[in-house]
């Protein structure tokens, strides 16, 4: 939206928090970055020590840790102790939703030792991992073997447990679905301390389908078997500039990975990786990647770009150069490509450190990047936290592919946020209706990107300060998010629960389906032991009284319209 078209809003009077946020980079440089670097290094040493252990030793430690968790759960007195949650500190989570539910009285279970890769099974093409294994750790082990998880979320710190219980996507999700879709088996400790293994075809198949998006409210995840795929040493990445209106950009994005003839399963026509970044209402860059061997990458005339070096231009800014120089192709080492957004946190790094993208800073201090999101949260305080809720947006909108153009126009009209991130994913038609599900009858419409077994969706990533905030105008962040959520409900879209949500309980269950989830809550004893997913995701502090009243409400399934027919 141009400045001439932007709605006139009154100027917002600055308060002390504005100045604190403006100069927060001082705290980040002298406190957050050094501590972050130290923590990253210590974590790396711990990962290396784990890798030195034999798989047999790791499995023995895993079994011992599982026994500790089972014993701890059995010590809980339901009439006296609070609901069960992990002992992880509230600010440690990578997501921007603050973990307020832990402020209520609760019964802690320590899962901090569950951070080992238990097995890489090249025959079954499965990685068996514990929930605190992160993406940086797993790619460091698998990529040298020319293997990778089918879906590798971009940021190093994202953990397997968070991506399963919450939400995980990557540029390969248009083939494999969300991260949770690539999990073959979940190992879960139930409320009564029973350890079970849930797969799609065993006696716990209902639990297998209910776990994704449940936020750990059905049981405690202690291991998962995740699908591996063969890869090559490099990613051949094509940058294609797009100029036009937002509907034109949405169509060019769809065309970049969805053949017009509907041949969506043809690997010759569909790239291995896809993402698009939109820099303004009229400019975007579509990127498509295919795995390439080192022999191909090193052929004369081919350009290799090692984007992982600390001094390199931030990836989103590097991609933007295609708008000036036109279409170009380069080869990026595969692991560096996977984590291309880590150092600058997409483009959030520009707000955290306004000069962080300058060459002098990258060259002298880029090796300290990125700041850990958990430390940014730990050092912000209540006032800063509330400021970001009002003046900043970090949201993902999971939108049917054919509605992406409408979503882009809505964001431009209501929030004026750029850049925007587009990443496609399949939403599979499953034997049961899960919390997120494709539109009824989608397979009959034969829309671009859809198949008989999956509807193509897109993550519209909205991360930055809205235009009105950057212009110093009044902006109601909570109201903007409420409007966004209403639009999403009306258009069969979904909101990942890591983000700050303004949904009330009734609207939460309008967006998500409660049937299977509530059934498993009752069947496996989660009610009265684990907080419900809505109250775990709900914005704001939770008192013990509110938590227990919420549990009673869920026993009565007040808003869970489980008997309603599908739309």
Automatic annotation (TrEMBL):
Q: InterPro entries of this UniProt entry?
A: Diminuto-like, FAD-bd_PCMH, FAD-bd_PCMH-like_sf, FAD-bd_PCMH_sub2, Oxid_FAD_bind_N
Q: Which residues cross the membrane?
A: 21-45
Q: Which PANTHER family match?
A: 24-DEHYDROCHOLESTEROL REDUCTASE, DELTA(24)-STEROL REDUCTASE
A GO term, aspect molecular function: Delta24-sterol reductase activity
Gene Ontology biological process terms, A to Z:
steroid metabolic process
Q: What is this protein called?
A: Delta(24)-sterol reductase
Q: Can you name the source organism?
A: Trifolium pratense (Red clover)
Please verify whether the record's keywords include Membrane.
Answer: yes
**Where is the FAD-binding PCMH-type domain positioned along the sequence?**
45-231
Keywords carried by this UniProt record: Membrane, Oxidoreductase, Transmembrane, Transmembrane helix
| Enzyme Commission (EC) number | 1.3.1.72
Q: What is its main location?
A: membrane
Q: How does it sit in the membrane?
A: Single-pass membrane protein
Matches recorded under PROSITE patterns = FAD_PCMH
EC main group:
oxidoreductase
């Amino acid at each position: 939206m141009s400045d001439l078209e932007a709605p006139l809003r009154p100027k917002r009077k600055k308060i002390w928090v504005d100045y604190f946020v403006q100069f927060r980079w001082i705290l980040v440089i002298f406190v957050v970055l050094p501590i972050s670097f130290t923590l990253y290094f210590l974590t790396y040493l711990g990962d290396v020590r784990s890798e030195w252990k034999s798989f047999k030793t790791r499995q023995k430690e895993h079994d011992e840790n599982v026994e500790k968790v089972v014993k701890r759960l059995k010590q809980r007195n339901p009439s006296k102790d609070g609901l069960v949650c992990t002992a992880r500190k509230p600010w440690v989570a990578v997501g921007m939703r603050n973990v307020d539910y832990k402020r209520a009285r609760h019964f802690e279970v320590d899962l901090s030792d569950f951070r080992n890769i238990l097995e890489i099974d090249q025959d079954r093409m499965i990685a068996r991992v514990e929930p605190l294994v992160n993406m940086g750790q797993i790619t460091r082990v698998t990529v040298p073997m020319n293997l990778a998880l089918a879906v590798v979320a971009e940021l190093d710190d994202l953990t397997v447990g968070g991506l399963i219980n919450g939400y995980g996507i990557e540029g390969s999700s248009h083939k494999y679905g969300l991260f949770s879709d690539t999990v073959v088996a979940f190992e879960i400790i139930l409320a009564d301390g029973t350890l079970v293994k849930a797969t799609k075809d065993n006696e716990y198949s209902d639990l297998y389908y209910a776990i994704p998006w449940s936020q750990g409210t059905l049981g405690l995840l202690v291991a998962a078997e995740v699908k591996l795929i063969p890869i090559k040493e490099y990613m051949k990445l094509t940058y294609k500039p797009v100029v036009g209106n937002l509907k034109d950009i949405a169509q060019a994005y769809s065309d970049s990975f969805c053949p017009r003839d509907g041949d969506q399963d043809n690997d010759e026509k569909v790239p291995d990786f896809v993402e698009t970044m939109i820099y303004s209402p009229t400019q975007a860059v579509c990127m498509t990647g295919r795995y390439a061997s080192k022999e191909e990458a090193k052929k004369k005339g081919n350009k290799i770009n090692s984007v992982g070096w600390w001094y390199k231009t931030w990836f989103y800014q590097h991609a933007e150069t295609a708008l000036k120089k036109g279409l170009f192709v380069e080869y990026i080492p595969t692991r560096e490509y996977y984590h291309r957004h880590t150092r600058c946190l997409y483009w959030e790094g520009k707000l955290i450190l306004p000069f962080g993208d300058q060459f002098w800073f990258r060259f002298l201090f880029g090796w300290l990047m990125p700041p850990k999101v958990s430390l940014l949260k730990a050092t912000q305080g209540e006032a800063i936290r509330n400021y970001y809720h009002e003046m900043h947006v970090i949201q993902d909108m999971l939108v049917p592919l054919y509605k992406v153009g409408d979503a882009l126009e809505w964001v431009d009209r209501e929030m004026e946020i750029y850049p925007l991130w587009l990443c496609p994913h399949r939403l599979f038609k499953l034997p049961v209706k899960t919390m997120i599900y494709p539109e009824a009858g989608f397979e009959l419409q034969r829309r671009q990107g859809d198949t008989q077994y999956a509807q193509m969706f897109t993550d519209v990533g909205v991360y930055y300060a809205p235009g009105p905030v950057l212009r110093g105008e009044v902006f109601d962040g909570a109201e903007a998010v409420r409007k966004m959520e209403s639009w999403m409900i009306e258009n069969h879209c979904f909101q990942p629960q890591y983000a700050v949500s303004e949904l009330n309980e009734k609207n939460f269950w309008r967006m998500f389906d409660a049937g299977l989830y509530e059934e498993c809550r009752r069947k496996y004893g989660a009610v009265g032991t684990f907080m419900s997913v809505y109250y775990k995701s709900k914005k704001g502090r939770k008192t013990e009284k509110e938590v227990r009243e919420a549990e009673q409400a869920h026993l009565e399934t007040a808003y869970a319209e489980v008997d309603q027919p599908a739309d």
